[in-house]
Amino acid sequence: MEQRVKNKISVVCRITLLIFSVGMFSFSHATGTKAQPNIVILVADDWGFSDVGAFGSEIATPNIDNLAKQGLKFSNFHVAASCSPTRAMLLTGVDNHRNGMGNMPETMPFEHQGKPGYKGTLNDDAVTLATMLKDNGYHTYITGKWHLGKEPGELPPQRGFERSFIQADSGSDNWENRPYIFLYDKAYWFEQGKPATLPEDYYSSKFIVDKAIDYIATDKKNGKPFFAYLGFQANHIPVQAPRSFIDKYQGVYKDGWTALRTARRNRAAEMGLIPKDTEMVTMASTANWDTLSPEQKKYDARRMEVYAAMAEAMDYHVGRFVEHLKQTGEFDNTVFVFLSDNGAEPTDPYKILSVKLWLYMNYTNDFDRLGDKGAYDAIGPSWASAAASPLSTYKFFAGEGGLRTPLIISGVPNMKKDQISSTFAHVTDIVPTLLDIAGIKPHDDHYQGKTVEPMVGNSMLPLLQGKSMRVHSADQAIGYELSGNAALFKGDYKLLKNLGPVGDSQWHLYNIANDPGEVHDLQQGMPQLFQSMKNDYDNYARANHVLPMPAGYNYITQGQLYAVHHVLIPKLKASLPKILFGLFVLISGLFLIRRRKRNTTIPKKS
């Protein structure tokens, strides 16, 4: 009898424990307890495919490399070819033409402005990852670059972020609170949606990490998981770095960009990131290093030294962030996502007359000052091609060098570690993946009773945990367009069109699995696939309201027109009363002088 009672009590206890456990599981997902992992997204700016040590670079990035050793490297991951469209897709899982970022405001033709999908800021029909995580019990933080709108209703507090300190435009100076180019009248920094100032010891990568650490520490006691988005300015123009990092790279780039591009290609092949027989296209914009004078070689090598230093400085501060999580016991429960927003930046501002004049009035480019406060540096197209090695083209264009960037994911429970995935993946896959990891059901086309844009990406969690070899099926078509440069991905194949000056405005077909350098055009040998993929692209363009580019469009020219309309004309209008008053005073003065002279020259009557 006594044994029966004990057994009944045991059964009751087990049932009670089970009910309690289920209840706690449900509670954890509703309120965000430590049953869910922390999530950290680290966004590098303008890093080429091979700018990370773990992807074949000579640049020292040990902290990012350690994340790769503890996680999975993606060698066939694709983003948009410039920052805002990538960031909009990264935070929503929605195609850029559907989330308002059909083009960046700085490069959007006037004919497109205000058309559906071409708002130039993140629209209200796309739900952000921050909103979904916050609604499921997460703390949500963002520090650094935003570039998705700077009007009051467009800032992070309205897009799901509890705490935020952001730079609202495409970039700014890394040492001071000032704009980096005449596209902007000032550097727009906001904290919690309100205009903010920077500390005296400001350096972009350091500050972005400092604020993220502060935010996490502030809320640590309540035990809720956090989502932290760190948008670094490294290595966006202007390329600037602390002298202690620059000095490490003295002499590293003395052999030039072609030698660097080849060395990186070889290391990437040895690592298994690309096929060993990968060929490369030499861009028409790549200068012949051997024809440069010794002075030119020395100067150009220094520019790349500063670039490498800026990347290493960012990695150093990533290390500080990781160490903070380790010291506070958060690291083992944190999922990391590292990526670059697009390929390396090819623009040399000193080659654009209007920008050059502005730079001469605001910065120095003296050899001994490069990287310092008040100095301006950019690597230009030749080094950018090396940064994207072994890929073709770079930022702004739809070649692999513009779209394929490093992706590292670590910290996922039961994931594969220190391995490489060569399957195609896309930036719109990030949000579904992180929601899956957090145990949150993704929305379809409704969220909290409102019709919204559906997410188009797929979860990578099965791949991360070794349960699948692909993210997308071989027959799934994924389209892309930005500023008239376009692509369509399907299995191992890519349909590609680039406008000038890089491309010929014609479609080409490549197998990017065995030819990531896009050397061998397959359209003649595979006409049926070529036509089929063109049809797929037309369907994508129609479904997403992609607009044709105006004749003669050039993104650099459009940027200059943006500056005229958004900076120069407003300044002239604001100054008009002063100008008119000055003219009035000048004319009045001239009139009085002339009258006085006339009075002194008229002879008096006797």
TrEMBL record:
Chain coiled-coil ranges: none
Signal peptide as annotated in the record: 1-30
GO terms for MF: arylsulfatase activity; metal ion binding
Residue ranges occupied by any Sulfatase N-terminal domain in the UniProt entry: 37-440
Keywords associated with the record: Calcium, Hydrolase, Membrane, Metal-binding, Signal, Transmembrane, Transmembrane helix
SUPFAM superfamilies assigned: Alkaline phosphatase-like
Residue stretches spanning the membrane: 575-593
InterPro entries listed in its UniProt record: Alkaline_phosphatase_core_sf, Sulfatase, Sulfatase_CS, Sulfatase_N
Pfam families, per database record: Sulfatase
Similarity comment: family membership: Belongs to the sulfatase family.
PANTHER family: ARYLSULFATASE (PTHR42693:SF33), ARYLSULFATASE FAMILY MEMBER (PTHR42693)
Protein known as: Arylsulfatase A
